[in-house]
Amino acid sequence: MAIEEGIIDDYTEDGTVDLKGNAVRRSKRGGWTACSFVVVYEVFERMAYYGISSNLVLYLTRKFHQGTVKSANNVTNWVGTIWMTPILGAYVADAHLGRYWTFVIASVIYVSGMSLLTLSVSVPGLKPPACHQSNPKDCKEASTLQLAVFFGALYTLAVGTGGTKPNISTIGADQFDDFHPKEKAHKLSFFNWWMFSIFFGTLFSNTVLVYIQDNVGWTLGYGLPTLGLVISVVIFLVGTPFYRHRVPAGSPFTRMATVIIAAIRKWRVPLPSDPKELYELDLEEYARKGKFRIDSTPTIRFLNKAAVKTGSMDPWMLCSVTQVEETKQMLRMIPILIATFVPSTMVAQINTLFVKQGTTLDRNIGSFKIPPASLAGFVTISMLVCVVLYDRFFMPIMQKLTKNPRGITLLQRMGIGLVIHIIIMIIASLTERHRLSVAREHGLDENGGQLPLTIFILLPQFLLMGAADAFLDVAKIEFFYDQAPESMKSLGTSYSSTSLGIGNFLSSFLLSTVSHITRKHGHQGWILNNLNKSHLDYYYAFFAVLNFLNFIFFLVVVKFYVYKAEVSDSMHVLTEELKVMRLKASNQEG
User: Fold this and answer.
1) What is the DSSP string of 26-49?
2) Could you give the C-alpha distances from 262 to 269, 273, 312, in angstroms and in order?
3) Which residues, in sequence order, are CB contacts of 42 under 8 Å at separation 6+?
């Protein structure tokens, strides 16, 4: 009897199954064993992605002969697409294929895009024509075929990441059972080590791969990340027998739409004073499907009208309280999501304007020449150090002070990251002001020559960007996963990638708009192809003000945000209620 109870206790309680739909035992699947494959995958995959994105602005400048605004916008538009497609990937996973199969199919598309991209920089007929003219306008332009293959490969790759990005981190988090105290504790550290794995892969890209691209060639520089991606997919597939899976719970967009439309259609119907009079499914129904029931809350009360009983059972007229609360949870996060757009725009500068600045500075250390894009490696190093310090020192100290298992709340952690972003842009503006004064002193403002100033003057803004990521990015990913309903975790995770996507598109919009406005009425303009004549110091000061205003907005929305109730607590209540119901039923039968 004790053995049977032990076996029953060994089964997961969060509804996870194997690929055949059978219940799984935590001793056989999941945990850190399964996560190790996922984390190793992410190291290689990030190496592949950042191997392309880190130096893309210089490839477009040197090989396609594009100017400052055009090359930077082509990068941010592509990166924006990379981070927006996860919404589609999350939809397919949650509504149809499940996370595992969506990920596997998307990986094939991703590898195809990377392979085509490597061919486009290797095959003579697909490479843009070489040019040795001092003025890029005198160079022969790339053919339509060359442009189509190169950008076609980039956007094929973007579609692939749409299916992998929202699902891989969610697959990792799914390996820990929220209703098992030990596994739940491990899950709190998972997101920190997840980010650690991402930036470990990024560090290799920003140092080794960038150096190869600048000094050996683009064929090897793109071929290595393609090979790395293939290896990472193989590693993920090898771990298949150890994964726990969640059954697709239907389209989250449809479920949210039905609630909103049902509430609008019944906007004249009064709400009952007792929330228990609202429509809800039986406890047994949720238990049978391995789903979670959520009690009615007073926030966004208008949506509660969707659960008011009017006699119709049409799903577009009547929704359960749980469905209403799931919709509320996703909508409540939108103001927080909006507050992350501006810092995401700041992140977009790392691989665009920061790199372009680096090309104007002295990059020599003896006979070694530092690739401008490799300074992004310091973002990674700073991030790695800060995550470890946060996890090992800051969090335990704050746990004792606040009694919060995370040390500080996720929103407080995000707030610290936002403050660091304000500081970054103030420092970037002052550094650029100094760089421009040196250019004028040496008469290099007209010809755009290299300044007698070390590239390491840019180091503070790169290091602080890593510190900001350790607070804001980690907290953002964990917040949107943690606060999303159980059946919409992939969609919740895609919120964080959506933030980066919109941030990159916002960067393109701001760069084009500011460049256009500042050149009106015969003015020189802030952003020119010759950075020594530009005024990036004004542009960065504008960003500092934008970050400050965004921080004020963040403080306002946080004041009104209501954290999602702990599901595990409601599940404990559900379990106890079911025991009582079954006991009554058995007594009645007796």
Assistant:
1) TTTS-HHHHHHHHHHHHHHHHHHH
2) 11, 19, 11
3) 168, 169, 194, 197, 198, 201, 232
- As a whole number of angstroms, the distance between CA 215 and CA 88 comes to 38
- As a whole number, mean pLDDT of residues 35-47 equals 87
DSSP 132: -
Residue from 533, 477, 476 nearest 168 by CA: 477
Q: Is 515 or 7 the better-scoring residue by pLDDT?
A: 515
Q: How far apart are CA 270 and CA 456, in angstroms?
A: 65
Burial 211-230 (b: 16+ CB within 10 A, else e): bbbbeeebbebbbbbbbbbb
User: How far is it, in rounded angstroms, from Cα 279 to Cα 485?
Assistant: 19
Q: Would you call 523 exposed, middle or buried from its count of C-beta atoms within 10 A (0-12, 13-18, 19+)?
A: exposed
Amino acid at 62: R
Return the closest-CA partner of residue 188 out of 475, 394, 489. Answer: 475
Segment 519-543 shows an average pLDDT of 87
Q: Which residues neighbour 552 within 8 Å (Cβ) at sequence distance 6 or greater? A: none
- The candidate with the shortest Cα–Cα distance to 166, out of 115, 116, 100, is 100
CB 508 within 8 A of CB 84: no
**What pLDDT sits at residue 460?**
95
- Residue 372 CA, chain-centre distance (Å), reads 25
Query: Rounded to whole angstroms, how far apart are CA atoms 205 and 396?
Result: 32
- The length of the chain in residues reads 590
- Is residue 396 predicted with pLDDT exceeding 50? yes
Each residue of 285-315: pLDDT tens digit?
776 666 678 888 888 889 999 999 988 888 8
Residue 397 CA to residue 392 CA, distance in Å, equals: 9
The answer to whether 58 touches 459, Cβ cutoff 8 Å, is no
Measure the CA–CA gap between 274 and 346, rounded to whole angstroms: 47
H-type alpha helices, 205-317: 210-215, 218-238, 252-265, 283-289
* Distance from chain centroid for Cα 129: 36
pLDDT of residue 3: 44
Q: How far apart (Å, rounded) are the C-alpha atoms in residues 97 and 171?
A: 13
Task: Tokens for 174, please give them.
Answer: 């799914």
User: Is 360:186 a contact under the CB 8 Å cutoff?
Assistant: no
What distance in Å separates the CA atoms of residue 346 and residue 72, rounded to the nearest whole number?
A: 13
SS3 347: helix
